Amino acid sequence: MKRLITMLERHGLRLTPEGDRYLLDFLKEDEAGNYAEDATCSFWRLHQRLTQQDAPQSAFRSLNTHLWDLAWDAGGNTASPLLSHILLCWTPTEIRASMSMRQPVYQPDEMPAYLEWLVRRQPHEAAAITGDVVALSISIGKAMDALAPSPLPATRLAPALKTRAPDRGRASFKALNSHCLEALELVNELDLRGIPTPRPLDWDQQQEQPAMQQLRALPGLGHVASQLSNMILHAQLQELRCQRGLTAVKSTLHMVFTGNPGTGKTTVARLVGRALAEEGILGSREVFEVARADLVAEYIGQTAPKVFSALDQAEGGVLLIDEAHGLMTDDRDPFGREALDALVKGMEDRRDRLAVILCGYPQEMDRLLDANPGLRSRISRTIQFPDYSAAQLLAIFDAMCAQHDYRLTPAARSLVAGLLGQRVASGEAARGNARMVRVMFEEAVQRQATRLARTLSARTDEDISTLTADDLGDAPAAWVMSA
Q1: What was the pLDDT predicted at 386?
Q2: Mean pLDDT of the chain
Q3: Per-residue model confidence as pLDDT tens digits over 217-229
Q4: Cα dist. 364→166, 198, 212, 253, 330 in Å?
């Protein structure tokens, strides 16, 4: 075991036991290691997409080849931390195959075969797939800068943008092959000792799920994830143009979310802040939430300083103004007008380092945007959150059950589906949407507790985790909600 530990230490790695398996981790935390770990996660997300789509082996070889090309461009020093995790997850056959690559296969402006295959199979996911590829390249570029800082003022977006030099190519080939030989020896050593090698997405399981992944998983909000992906790709492309000395077309990150109560506006706004930070668009993942009471003062002249203070606190991240339509109570509201004037100035002055998201109801938000001529022009996009369908509300109810370790009996689920269908058909669901579902779930849990109270100690785990039709019998009474 000592020999194995020594081999891992040469790679800057250690094995951490977890149950019946081991997880790989870096011996020490540093900037280059963090970027290498980001690259690993991006690589395995692409690998997982190919696996889920039952891709041919040629697509997997293309993904491995593209990674190898990026590592080649990065050079031997950067390649070591970059490949330490990934190589040990390849099969011995894949490692040996990589050693036959003596020069980069893909040119910087060429679409790799695996990317073309994925986009053709999942055209609706093209933005997300491309985003993972861009994230992989960006992570490697940042790892290069961490190990060998660039004289350029801004971080390189991708190593493939550099001119390929023959001497560096020879050095990369020698370093990468040496690294492969050690990785192959390590794989064999792990196998000899019966230690399971790490599997894809082990690293994602140790981290919080990426914000974009969470956003795509929300029922009925695929169009929001698509628009955000487009915004991120636009920002990354403009940064790439800057790196190449071209004029960038800058756009603001400010947005308006409109929709009825309970349609997910605030939830999505919080995820947007995290996503923009994770993709390198903003410097902080913090979302600073405010409402009218936090921005409007009691006396004329005191409101603008409060608005600027909120903008200063949110700088680098997201300023979320919930129920923003409340900033203006009517056309003659001097306090609200002062708040809007200050907000418009602050949004313009901080357009490159702050995203302001205004959430509110559709008609009210239209009146707010019309109240100040400059406000609408500062907004990059308005995203509408439609009311949920009965099927989407049922999916939300299922998700709440799963999140809290509950399950529905078939009869209970049929009852929930029927009740939700009635509410949507009558138009009453628009008053609450997901909030209505949450109230319904909480009421069902309370009724279950009452039902089981007298014999609680004799109940099994299945009993206390199951919601029956009886627990939903009075559900409609729980749905009387105000807008």
Answers
A1: 87
A2: 75
A3: 777 787 888 888 8
A4: 63, 53, 29, 22, 11
The span from the CA of 210 to the CA of 299, in Å, is 43
Q: Is 358 helix (H, G, I), strand (E, B) or coil?
A: strand
Residue 176, judged by CB atoms within 10 A of its CB (0-12, 13-18, 19+), counts as buried
* C-beta neighbour count of 416 within 10 angstroms: 25
Q: Which of 120-134, 360-374, 394-408 bottoms out in mean pLDDT, i.e. has the lowest?
A: 120-134
CA distance 483 to 121: 42
Rg value, the chain, Cα = 27
The one-letter amino acid at 215: L
Q: Report pTM.
A: 0.55
By the 8 A CB rule, do 434 and 375 touch?
A: no
The residue type found at 271 is L
**What tokens were used for 387?**
């009311």
* Distance from C-alpha of 251 to C-alpha of 234, rounded to nearest angstrom: 9
Give CA–CA dist 432/66, Å, rounded.
Answer: 48
Helix, coil or strand: residue 244: coil
Tally the residues of the chain.
483
- Evaluate if residue 382 carries a pLDDT over 50: yes
Q: Rounded to whole angstroms, how far apart are CA atoms 222 and 215?
A: 8
Contact predicate 389/446, CB 8 Å:
no
E strand or H helix that includes residue 454: none
- Please tell me the least confidently modeled range out of 82-96, 318-332, 376-390, 423-437: 82-96
Here the tokens at position 446 are: 């309370």
Per the CB < 8 A criterion, the answer to whether 344 and 307 are in contact is no
Nearest to 126 by CA among 134, 138, 118: 118
DSSP secondary structure letters along 314-354: HTTSEEEETTGGGG-SSTT-HHHHHHHHHHHHHHHHTTTT-
Q: How far apart are CA 66 and CA 363, in angstroms?
A: 49
Query: Tokens in use for 253?
Result: 């990150």
3-state secondary structure string across 69-131 = HHHHHHCHHHHHHHHHHHHCCCCHHHHHHHCCCCCCCCCCCCCCHHHHHHHHHCHHHHHHHHH
Tell which wins on pLDDT, 172 or 190.
Answer: 190
- Please determine, for residue 329, whether its predicted confidence score (pLDDT) is greater than 50: yes
What the block records as the tokens of 477 is 């009474």
User: Each residue of 348-370: pLDDT tens digit?
Assistant: 988 888 999 999 998 899 989 88
What pLDDT is recorded for position 1? 59
Burial profile 314-344: b = 16 or more Cβ within 10 angstroms, e = fewer: bbbbbbbbbbbbbbbeeeeeebbbbbbbbbb
User: Which helix (H) or strand (E) element contains residue 254?
Assistant: none
Cα atoms in the 13 Å half-sphere on the side-chain side of 133:
24
- What are the φ and ψ backbone dihedral angles of 378, each rounded to 5 degrees? -85, -5
